[in-house]
Amino acid sequence: MTGFEIKEEFCLDGKPFKILSGAIHYFRIHPDGWYHSLYNLKALGFNTVETYIPWNLHESSEGQFDFEGILDIERFLQIAQNLGLYAIIRPSPYICAEWEFGGLPAWLLEKNLRLRSYDSEFLNLVSRYYDVLLPKLAKHQLEQGGNILMFQIENEYGSYGEDKAYLRALKRLMEAKGLTAPYFTSDGPWQATLRAGSLIEDDILVTGNFGSKARENFANMQAFFDQYHKNWPLMCMEFWDGWFGRWKEPLIKRDPEETVNAVMEVIKSGSINLYMFHGGTNFAFMNGCSVRGQTDLPQITSYDYDAILDEAGNPTRKFYLLQERLKQDFPELHYAEPLVKTSMAAQNIPLNAKVNLFNTLDSISEYREAFYPKNMEALGQGTGFILYQTYLKKDKKDSERIRMIDARDRAQVFLNGKAIATQYQDEIGGDIFLPLEEDNNQLCILVENMGRVNYGSKLAAPTQKKGIGRGVIADLHFIGHWKMYPLAFSDISSIDYSAGWQEQQPSFYRFNFDCQKLEDTYLDMSGFGKGTAFINGYCLGRFWNVGPSLSLYLPKGFLKQGTNTVTVFETEGIYQDSLNLTNKPIFKEIEHGPKS
Q1: Which residues form the active site (predicted)?
Q2: Dist CA 389 CA 369 (whole Å)
Q3: Of 52, 358, 542, 564, whose CB count within 10 A is highest?
Q4: pLDDT category, 1, cuts 50, 70, 90?
Q5: Closest CA to 200 of 186, 214, 181, 180
Q6: pLDDT per residue over 377-416, tens digit each?
Q7: Which residues are catalytic?
């Protein structure tokens, strides 16, 4: 007997096989770092790597697919196989993962469909995506000489819906497009989610997600199995060895010794996938957003996760403690010393050029015109910023009151180039008073998409559309005649630094530095306000001086020998005349943050 089978135990080539897996998301790590992270997973003593597949990166524009560079999943799988690692792949349309919109493409919001359901339009779009994706995965299945053991059908669906017709439709699509390896679902390990999110009636393996109390959670899963007379191996598909970070909140840290004890409790009774083994980075604008009550809580750029490897991919104390325990209990496994990257620092890199956003606007974006403002998705934009511009006549001597209706997520209001107000989700809709000093006054509103919700019922809500929704009211009427400038920042090469700069406006700042020995580093953003930073034109992610993170990880793979350019887009008028690179991340202490 050969291959991978699910019986009373997992079996590989006819022999019992305990899955010791770690999550590494290829799309959160520069490709130059893939080998490093995968090697360290193997060195720990583990035998399998797990990854999601993010639909919104592979088809960011409808009908246009990308599997190059950081999205080359086949290269990632081949590196893993060369190191002797098997793979678990989660190609479901939705992934959660604290990722922008849970991995769903933003352009879906402009469709007349119901997400994550047995909706023919939604399933047709999934099918088109799978036509491209799944053949790439099929040839890496174990039975075809590859290393993939299993595929996930949907992700924690029991925490969202109970549409079994939808789950079965996904399974049929996967089968029709060449996936023959065993399937599974993963959900919270309690009755309601397991019942709603699984296909246990169809003999599809059920796995659980949790971060502690393995004995209790596995007992709940076993009781669920017993109801359907299933004698399956127990597996924690996501063992949360840390947690993600949110702006304005303290980072959540988990005691390394307690973490290792909890991991070993899982391994004693079943198989495990560490979530995360290496968290990596939410590059560009790909951070997700949590919800507490009705309040959106955007997550930070770093996805360090307090994981087994740090954001750069280097071993933490959790790695060494876990490897030591594994050696004691499983001496027959393969172990090795982990790889450790070096890092570099540089001080006082001088500011080379600066320009206001408003002055270079026409060189970096092509505006669209409409009587009423359109949201970001209607303009074919998924992430980033969008600038709305119109003119207001002076109708009375004192100030004019305006209100933004349905604007998301963060809006900065400028009158004749002067900053007037900034409003967040819980403030938008409130009064803003404009001192109309001219007969004809330019009104600009810069709106930032701070990250779409990645989990829960709000995922399907209209609130995931970004930009200005119904419009802006002056006095009692909606204002018309708008120009809209999409600012996705996918290409910043046309910034015109000669166009002029003045204080207290959103601006671009350019720093050049020479680099001969390429090493990882961190951009020290502690002297800047809020915005996003780029290295040689590539967006590293967001920064914000509210913390907890005050730096941005810069992998050496984004650097080149010779002159490198850091571009900072800052929205608050808070900047520095020099930039520092540090060899470790910088954090801000935040006390008494709200609980997760």
Answers
A1: 156 (proton donor), 238 (nucleophile)
A2: 10
A3: 542
A4: very low
A5: 186
A6: 999 999 999 999 999 999 888 899 999 998 999 999 999 9
A7: 156, 238
